[in-house]
Design brief:
Number of strands: 14
Strand order of the largest sheet: 7-14-13-9-10-11-12-8
Shape: globular
Number of domains: 3
């Protein structure tokens, strides 16, 4: 990726004409674009045309609006759709091509746990950072095919399934059938983390003496006394070691300590939750989904084309979750590198996060496009980034606002009573709308509210657990909102395109996950 001043101005008319798929993240340029750069990288494992050609992004206060060219999504998804007529096990065969690189990245991360970067010379630090990023790059080159398929085939799967069911005169419950056939059959890393913590809490609950300590003492006192209970303390330490990173995103590098989890366990022990039953429910859900899906496929006698699309969707759901997991690892280890490099060259960690990978290397080697502290701060305030092929350009401030207006100036009709999307999880509920633009806003969600977002992320989970339903602008059958909604058994409507634009905090709505419809009952 090479800086090319004036690229935005040169291609602005073309960018205005393109149709863009919108996603939103808590993110900074450095950590988010480690994946983005690889989506544009051609390589043989993707097949010809399996890469994306361009991205545009806006950054503001550690949030990003990311846009993928819809033509790229359509092209990549069509590569898989064509194969579904004749081949089988397409998803699993595709995923295997990256297994070696996933293992290599995990190995690289574990090696970094044993290294003290502060003793490295600048050249050694640069090489170690390059090696880490390159290991990550080789693993995430598959991102364009995961996203291309997930974002480009939902409506195709739904349309073909509807036509098939119509011909069989199965009209009632089509939304539920679609949700069941596209449900995940493997446990997400978020649920792995939750069951792990629940098992620690259950072990403590069974130890009457320790349970009394957790319920009756302050956090500092509990932290000291649990060390006297070696079995339970070891379980707690193992959980902390395995999942301290699990609430990261593309900008925040959380390192949760033992006391954080002691506080969560205290809350669990004081609640009315049946811990054993909750563990059983979470662990059984993917297995039950698999059985239900297999029976449904057999009962309906689905054609080969649809069975293959569902197989890819199921495999890529798992693969996408793996990518999210190791993305959070990349945030952790990448932030350690950025902090050390920033310390040596007079930049704060957040300023380093507003540099792209080649710009960080340029800072260390003093060769290439150098980003000043002033420029890093301007990017964080508001910036527009454009990446096309091997080149990128970025503008800040008034120019970024001007570009945004040129490309997305036309608004949408907001005075409507209902709108549609895809049914990702069945059910029907009413509730108060809460628009969530960032993981830092999930605290405003109360029990029974309707969570509305451009898309959800794993770090939204505390709000999602309180929500009665989820509605998103974007997303596919393998998206986070769809997966979590099915796991929790709440209605979910995805890919509405307009939810965050036409709804406001306080609106009363009905979410019909059976038919993919959101109805506005009363505006605030």
């Amino acid at each position: 990726m090479q800086y090319k001043r004036g690229l935005i101005k040169k291609d602005l008319k073309k960018l205005k004409k393109n149709k863009w798929y919108h996603q939103r993240f808590d993110a900074c340029p450095n950590l988010l674009y480690l994946i983005g750069e690889m989506e544009l990288k051609p390589e043989s494992r993707k097949e010809r045309g399996g890469e994306f050609t361009s991205h545009i992004l806006f950054f503001k206060d550690d949030k990003s609006d990311w846009y993928i060219d819809q033509a790229d999504i359509n092209r990549v998804s069509n590569l898989f759709i064509k194969r579904c007529y004749n081949e089988k096990n397409i998803g699993r065969q595709t995923m295997k091509k990256w297994d070696k690189d996933k293992k290599a990245f995990v190995k690289k991360c574990k090696e970094l746990d044993k290294i003290k970067l502060s003793v490295f010379s600048n050249d050694e630090l640069k090489k170690s950072y390059q090696d880490f990023v390159n290991a990550y790059f080789r693993w995430v080159t598959m991102s364009s095919i995961i996203d291309g398929f997930a974002l480009g085939t939902d409506e195709i799967i739904q349309k073909n399934l509807k036509n098939f069911l119509d011909k069989k005169h199965i009209i009632k419950g089509q939304g539920t059938i679609f949700a069941d056939l596209t449900a995940p059959t493997s446990q997400s890393f978020i649920n792995d983390s939750e069951t792990s913590l629940l098992k620690v809490a259950l072990a403590i609950q069974k130890n009457i003496k320790l349970k009394k300590i957790f319920i009756g003492n302050s956090l500092p006192t509990t932290g000291k006394k649990i060390k006297n209970f070696s079995k339970e303390y070891k379980l707690l330490l193992t959980h902390q070691k395995n999942y301290f990173w699990s609430k990261n995103n593309y900008v925040d590098n959380h390192i949760f300590g033992v006391n954080y989890y002691i506080k969560e366990i205290k809350s669990l022990l004081k609640s009315d939750i049946d811990l054993a039953l909750q563990i059983k429910r979470i662990e059984k859900t993917p297995k039950l989904s698999r059985i239900k899906k297999q029976r449904l496929i057999k009962k309906l006698n689905l054609p080969k084309f649809l069975r293959n699309l569902i197989e890819i969707s199921e495999t890529f759901t798992y693969w996408q979750d793996e990518r999210k997991k190791y993305t959070f690892w990349a945030t952790h280890y990448g932030s350690i590198f950025l902090a050390e490099i920033g310390k040596r060259f007079g930049y704060s960690l957040i300023e380093m996060k507003y540099m792209f990978f080649p710009e960080v290397l340029a800072l260390v080697s003093k060769k290439g496009h150098l980003v000043s502290k002033k420029e890093a701060k301007a990017r964080r305030a508001f910036s527009f980034f454009y990446h096309n092929g091997p080149y990128y350009d970025i503008v800040t401030g008034p120019m970024a606002h001007k570009v945004q207006k040129v490309i997305f100036g036309a608004g949408i009709e907001k005075n409507i009573n209902d709108f549609r999307g895809l049914s990702a999880s069945s059910g029907k509920v009413r509730g108060i709308v809460k628009i969530v633009k960032s993981a830092h806003e999930v605290g405003k969600i109360n029990q029974g509210d309707i969570l509305v977002a451009v898309m959800t992320r794993p770090d939204y989970i505390m709000g999602i657990k309180k929500a009665a339903a989820i509605v998103t602008n974007e997303g596919g059958v393998t998206c986070h909102a769809a997966i979590v909604a099915r796991e929790l058994g709440i209605p979910c409507v995805i890919a509405t395109k307009i939810a965050t634009e036409v709804l406001k905090d306080g609106d009363l709505v009905e979410v019909n996950g059976n038919h993919g419809v959101v109805t506005i009952l009363k505006r605030k």
